């Protein structure tokens, strides 16, 4: 990738530090300019009064690169933040996209959140070769774990963070849309550490013929008084975000199962790492 002036685009190496900060070590900047350059993080898709930009000052390193730090104690809106460099003496419109360099994300593996809101930030390369940061902000958060299939039943184990009780908890499978169906199953194995499990009979999702793909979303209903801040109505979205994988849709691939006459059901993840069940017509023999 090159800039409009023909110069090589800036590149940033990213490191997640033990305290949760993200450092950006930038090379390829225009050192001939005077003034203070900045790293800009722009929330993708936000426009008008909702447009958001995070400004990170860049300071020099001994090897000639510049460093910016994304603090660990600041919460950022959930979404994808594109990384740009605003060179010294340039305005925001002249900021250029930053390429991804080496990304050291080892501290994100088996991430253990605290007792408050779950905030996760993962630097990642976009499909067109730019650097972005995927942010999640959940309170409470239901982290999906092992997913196993036994016949036409799917069993999921997970852990609930940020809620006090799983007494009377249920899991709800929702077919999105105004007229979408809902299937509820009980939660088993709830413990003081937030561990939970549930088994969903996949054939209960196929109420009648399936002629086109359906994507059912999964929600944990922790119990009375424990509704989450996120999602549509009561419930906590079941996702898997506590590691270094920013998009597990094509990484965690599960086999499909027959779920009634002519219907196949397959556990899957969305591009936002939300756990789902995909229903589609069974392929012809």
3D structure, described in words:
By secondary structure, the chain is mainly β. The chain has strands at residues 11-16, 22-27, 38-43, 53-57, 59-60, 66-70, 79-86, 96-97, 99-104, 118-125, 131-138, 141-150, 153-161, 170-174, 182-186, 195-201, 214-221, 236-239, 257-258, 263-269, 275-281. Strands 12, 13, 14, 15, 16, 17, 18, 19, 20 and 21 form a 10-stranded mixed beta sheet that branches. A hairpin with a 5-residue loop joins β10 and β11 (131-138). The chain starts with 10 loop residues before the first strand and ends with a strand. 34% of the residues are buried. The mean pLDDT is 87.
Mean of the pLDDT scores?
A: 87
| Low confidence ranges | none
Oligomerization state of this entry?
single chain
Based on Cα principal axes, name the global outline: elongated
If helices are DSSP runs of H or I spanning 4 or more residues, what is the number of helices? Answer: 0
Helix content class: under 10%
Compute the separation of the termini in Å: 46 Å
Binned strand content: 35-45%
Order of helices and strands: EEEEEEEEEEEEEEEEEEEEE
Q: Which value, in Å, is the CA radius of gyration?
A: 22 Å
């Amino acid at each position: 990738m090159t800039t409009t002036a023909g110069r090589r685009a800036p590149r940033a190496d990213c490191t997640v530090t033990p305290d949760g900060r993200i450092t950006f070590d930038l090379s390829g900047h225009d050192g001939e300019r005077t003034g203070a350059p900045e790293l800009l993080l722009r929330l993708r898709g936000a426009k008008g009064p909702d447009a958001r930009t995070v400004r990170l000052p860049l300071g020099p390193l001994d090897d000639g690169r510049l460093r910016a730090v994304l603090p660990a104690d600041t919460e950022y809106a959930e979404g994808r933040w594109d990384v740009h460099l605003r060179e010294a003496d340039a305005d925001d419109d002249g900021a250029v996209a930053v390429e991804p360099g080496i990304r050291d994300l080892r501290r994100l593996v088996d991430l253990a959140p605290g007792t408050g809101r779950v905030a996760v930030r993962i630097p990642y390369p976009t499909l067109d070769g730019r650097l972005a940061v995927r942010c999640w902000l959940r309170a409470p958060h239901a982290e999906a774990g092992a997913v196993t299939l036994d016949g036409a039943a799917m069993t999921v184990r997970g852990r609930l963070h940020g809620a006090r009780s799983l007494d009377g908890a249920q899991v709800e499978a929702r077919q999105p849309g105004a007229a979408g169906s809902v299937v509820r199953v009980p939660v088993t194995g709830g413990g003081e550490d937030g561990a939970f499990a549930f088994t969903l009979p996949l054939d209960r999702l196929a109420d009648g013929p399936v002629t086109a793909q359906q994507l059912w979303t999964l929600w944990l209903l922790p119990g009375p008084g424990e509704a989450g801040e996120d999602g549509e109505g009561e419930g906590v979205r079941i996702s898997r975000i506590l590691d270094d994988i920013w998009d597990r849709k094509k990484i965690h691939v599960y086999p499909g199962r027959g779920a009634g006459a002519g219907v196949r059901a397959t556990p899957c993840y969305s591009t936002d790492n939300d756990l789902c069940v995909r229903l589609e017509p069974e392929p012809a023999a």
